[in-house]
Amino acid sequence: MDFLNAIILLLNYLFVPALAYGSQLALGAIFVSLIYGILRFAYFTAGDLMSFGTMFTILFTWYFQSLGISLGFLPTALIAIPFGILITIFYVLLKDKLVFSYYRIKKSPPVMLAMVSIGTMFVTQAIVRIIIGPFDRRFFDGEKFIIKANEFKEMTGLNEGLAIKSTQVITLFVTVIVVSILFWFLNKTKTGKSMRAYSDNEDLALLSGIDPKKVVMITWVIAAILATVGGALYGLDKSFKPFTYFNNMLPIFAAAIVGGIGNPFGAFLGGYVIAFSEILLTYAYKKFFVYLLPESLEPDSLLQLLSTDYKFAVSFSILVIVLLFRPSGIFKGKVL
Amino acid sequence: MRKNLDIIAAYSIMLGLIILVGFLQSWSMALSILCLCLISAVMTIGANIQWGYAGLINFGIMGYTALGGLAAVLVSAPPVEEAWKAGGFNMLLCAFIIFSMIFIIRIITKKFSKSKNRTYIIAGIIIAGLILLRLISAPAIESIEAVNPATTGFLGGMGLPILFSWIVGAFFAGGLAYVIGKIALGLRADYLAIATLLISEIVIAVIKHEDWLSRGVKNVIGLKRPVPYEIDLQGKEWFINLVQKLNQGSLNLITNSLEKQQALKQLVIESSTVFVKLCFAGLFTAVVIILLIITQKALYSPWGRMMRAIRDNDEAANAMGKNVVKQHLLIFVLGSAIVGIAGAMLVTYDGLFTPGSYRPMRYTFLIWVMVIVGGSGNNFGAILGGFAVWFLWIEAAPIALFLINFFTIGLEETNALKVHLIDSIPYFRFLMMGIGLLLIMRYRPKGILPEKIKRV
Question: What is the ipTM of this complex?
Answer without folding.
Answer: 0.89
